[in-house]
């Protein structure tokens, strides 16, 4: 769990990263808590007028949380292939949401019904098959509340057929998130 102060620091770092006015990383390193120096999986989601404008993250920890937030915020604004780069006039219109991921937990299941019974809207889901991999944050359940639709869309996102989840040949992991955003 992050304190309110740590959450504010991460949101400020994300905004500064997008604006391009970050302090030197050495200064940041000296001022952030030990908690923010721990490697964590994280996603930064940008919305503009309630519409998705960019979302980039790391499912597994690759660097300290504060550094991951900095790079994911910048990449969500300028490198999400689904959207053109954020223009300067848009920066102040963006709302930033940060999702800090728990460790991944493999989900063992024996049948399609067993799989469906183990999923709920509190869980983010990762599917993998060979070189194909994709995730949906728990927030996606708001748009795809039916478990079958959620899994079908996730398969398509991974470059698989929509019914691949029924084959029982997927490696599935789940996680929870601590999410927070600007007011």
3D structure, described in words:
- There is one protein chain.
- This protein has five helices and eight strands, in the order H-H-E-E-H-E-E-H-E-E-H-E-E.
- A hairpin with a 2-residue loop joins strand 1 (42-48) and strand 2.
- A four-stranded antiparallel β-sheet has the order 2-1-3-8, with helices on one face. Strands 4-7-5-6 form a four-stranded antiparallel β-sheet, covered by helices on one side.
- The chain has helices spanning 4-19, 25-31, 65-78, 112-118, 147-157, and strands at 42-48, 51-58, 94-101, 105-106, 124-129, 132-136, 171-175, 177-181.
- It folds into two domains: 4-101, 2-Layer Sandwich (Glycoprotein, Type 4 Pilin); 105-176, Hypothetical protein ph0010, domain 2 (Dna Ligase, domain 1, 2-Layer Sandwich).
- The protein is globular and about 50 Å long.
- It is α+β, with helices and mostly antiparallel strands.
Please sum up the structure shown:
This protein has helices at residues 4-19, 25-31, 65-78, 112-118, 147-157; strands at residues 42-48, 51-58, 94-101, 105-106, 124-129, 132-136, 171-175, 177-181. The protein is an alpha+beta fold and 183 residues long.
Kindly report the name of the CATH homologous superfamily of the largest domain.
Hypothetical protein ph0010, domain 1
* Percent range of helical residues: 25-40%
CATH architecture of the largest domain: 2-Layer Sandwich
The CATH topology of the largest domain comes to: Glycoprotein, Type 4 Pilin
N-to-C terminal Cα separation, in Å? 19 Å
Please provide the ordered H/E string of secondary-structure elements: HHEEHEEHEEHEE
Our count of domains comes out at: 2
Mind describing the biggest β-sheet? 4 strands, antiparallel
Enumerate the strands of the largest sheet in spatial order, edge to edge or round the barrel. 2-1-3-8
Low-confidence stretches: none
């Amino acid at each position: 769990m992050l304190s309110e102060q740590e959450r504010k620091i991460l949101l400020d770092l994300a905004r500064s990263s997008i604006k391009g006015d970050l302090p030197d990383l050495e200064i940041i390193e000296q001022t952030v808590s030990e908690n923010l120096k721990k490697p964590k999986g994280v996603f930064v989601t940008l919305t503009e007028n309630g519409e998705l404008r960019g979302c980039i993250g790391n499912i597994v920890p690759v660097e300290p949380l504060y550094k991951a937030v900095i790079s994911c915020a910048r990449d969500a604004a300028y490198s999400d292939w689904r959207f053109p780069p954020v223009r300067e006039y848009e920066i102040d219109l963006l709302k930033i949401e940060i999702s800090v991921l728990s460790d991944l937990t493999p989900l063992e299941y024996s049948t399609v019904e067993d799989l469906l019974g183990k999923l709920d809207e509190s869980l983010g889901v990762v599917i993998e098959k060979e070189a194909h991999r994709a995730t949906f944050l728990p927030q996606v359940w708001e748009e795809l509340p039916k478990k079958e639709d959620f899994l079908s869309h996730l398969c398509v996102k991974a470059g698989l057929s929509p019914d691949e989840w029924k084959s029982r040949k997927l490696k599935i992991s789940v996680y929870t998130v601590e999410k927070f955003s600007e007011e």
